[in-house]
Write a structure and sequence with these properties.
By secondary structure, this protein is mainly β. It contains one helix and 28 strands.
Amino acid sequence: MARASRLPVSSVFILLAVAAAFLFLMSHQETEAAAATSFEIDPASKEIGVASSSSVQLVAVPGPDSLAVWIVEIGFDPSIVTFNSCTSVPSPAGAAAGSGCEAKDTGGSPDDDTVVSFGGVIFLDNERGLDKETILATIKFDAVGAVGQCSPLTIDRAEALGPNEEEETPVIMDGEICIVEIGYAPAVVQGATWHLRNSNTGGAADHSFVYGKVGDTHLMCDWDGNGSETPAVVRGNTWYLRNSNSGGVADITPFTYGRSGDIPICGDWNDDGTETPGVIRGNTWYLRDSNSGGVADITPFTYGRSGDIALVGDWSGDGTDTPGVVQGNTWHLRNSNTGGVADIAFPYGRSGDIPLVWKASVPTQ
């Protein structure tokens, strides 16, 4: 997957505006506020691995008059993270909308560089703007700092207009992105008890809890996009996801996906920072982009053969998890969620071995 060029920027402008409303907004910045739209960084605290990439989202919760036009500037520390790319809100069905995203160097200090995205959203049938919580943009950053450093993600400017050019004073909720040494450590499940270890060493479990029932299928993924992997169980074709490494009930409303007998998997199929379900039926992969029931979001595809050992990983380092299979001792890895031939193939181990994937500090291909 092609990666956007890194830019020496320290702030991101997320600007969605129709031309006339944009001019009105710029010329009426002192108008008294009318509603309480909120803009927030989601997740509020994001972890990013050393020398890796990760994304946050700019989310709007519109006020009672709905939201048609907005300008939001997000500041960050370019010595810790740098801007990689941003994707603006897609056009909703039944709406007049347009958007774009570009880098802009103001010619001043690095703190003055910006990235500008622009457009607007108006529903033509009722002349309303957005009236429910909406992801306005997904912003991808590259880590350039050291472990333990955190960059604030501060909403330094936030302006909004309703569909009738009513100006609002938005509520803002800042965030941060912190560089961590992300890696894997061992865990085992005995019956319904999970035993987690915090280092790649032998010894007693650092943390134990009960979740699920004996006979469930067990998974661990980052279900809420906060950088931590937590448990899930699949019982038949019902998924029960938990957002903390503790016992209790499912945090996400249980949902059905796939069929009983499918092989359940999970991964970040679209590089949005949240891992979501997938199932393999025979050699057909069905991947979903949200933690909910429904049909596959990615067109189902065939990869490998029925009976292969299936794996999931970010083989290319672009932030997206994609399929892999092991046949005998030959690994066949693909860099997109589509059918086709392997992008990477190599022998490793012996036929009959149990293949595993771990996060190593080595360059990806």
